[in-house]
Amino acid sequence: MSERRGPRMGTLNRAKGRLLHWTAFAALGLAIALVLTGCERKKKYSQATPDDVISTAVEMIKDGQTAQLGNLIYADSPEMRAMLNKLGVLMGHMQSLSRAAEQRFPEEMAAIKDKAVQAAADGQTTSLLNQMMSGASGRAGSRGVSISNRGVERKGAGSTAVGGAVDEGQVEELFNRLFADPYGWIERNSARLSTLKTADDSATVLLDGEPIIPGLGLPMRKDDGKWYISLPTNMPVVSNFWPRTKDQWRILNSVVTVLDRTVVDMEKDVQQGQTATLSSLGTEARKKVIIPGAIAFAAYGKEIDVRGRIDRRIKQLQTKQREWSATKREAGFEMPTKLFAAMNKLAAEEIEPLVRRNKAPNIEKMNNTEFEQMINGWFTNAGLAVKVDGQLEPVDMDRQITEWEEARKLASTKKR
Fold it and tell me: Based on the number of CB atoms within 10 Å of its own CB, is 286 exposed (0-12), middle (13-18) or buried (19 or more)?
């Protein structure tokens, strides 16, 4: 009996040995994988102080993590954060293109960097940026801007270049620098960058002790324990063109997408030898971007025009509200506290489609009866059973408006 079991026990022991061997091997492999995973885990970058944000930006560039640069910029809406995430992808691809260009054209890249270093030594580091910013902020709101094969032009009388200072050669140089060495300036000038706290939760970025963007500055803000670059979206030169609606954000996202695809295509061209020289990067970029970019900016310009016409109607509404309420009070009526808030909530969504069809009413020329009829129509369309052309009952109207607001908020939450 024992002799018959012998071979079987040997086979079983060998099977157990193999199992133990493979288990140990698998455990070793798992341990190695865990170590490697730990090594590849995303590095944590500090945003504890304003200076940390600047240092982190430089670290991200040196670490090849430029796709994370968008995380250092404050987003005041989900739409802006989505755009910054998309922008981060673009910035990562730009760094990849720069590396490909450095491998393909080492001598030309070295020449570009040497020229940038010399420009910094001569105090010309930001001259092109200054010229473009001063031109853009000077009379941007009063005249149109067009793009042609001669560069950037201002329509109307006066200089043909923005601010009278940017010509085709400068634009070409800017494109070449932007695509060939997008982050070199930050690396080379990081020691010249600093921050200045202006309050417990605000600061500004400085270059050689002066605002980095002349006339605008580059503010910073603290939010939820972290510091961020805060784009100056409230300043007139920026706010006039900053997106507000989902359609405007969609168009801006399409512009970033066009740039991103351009950068990816350019990297392939460099790697496959289809780009003859480094200096032709700027030319190729302009060829690839000019048509889709022009279409996107034309669409965006149309949206900005619509927004301006809506804003004018909103101002007319606010003026009419003051006139109408004064008349009502003179007649002995008490105004419900929530009435104007309800009007203003509905104003944009009621006025926008009319503006787009060029049928928006001239509110400032309405008499009180016409104004009341318009507001009653808005409330009816929105499901709010409040009438403003009869006896005003403040307590009852405030209660109805509160219930209506809660119902709208609940409906909006369900849609999400």
Answer: middle
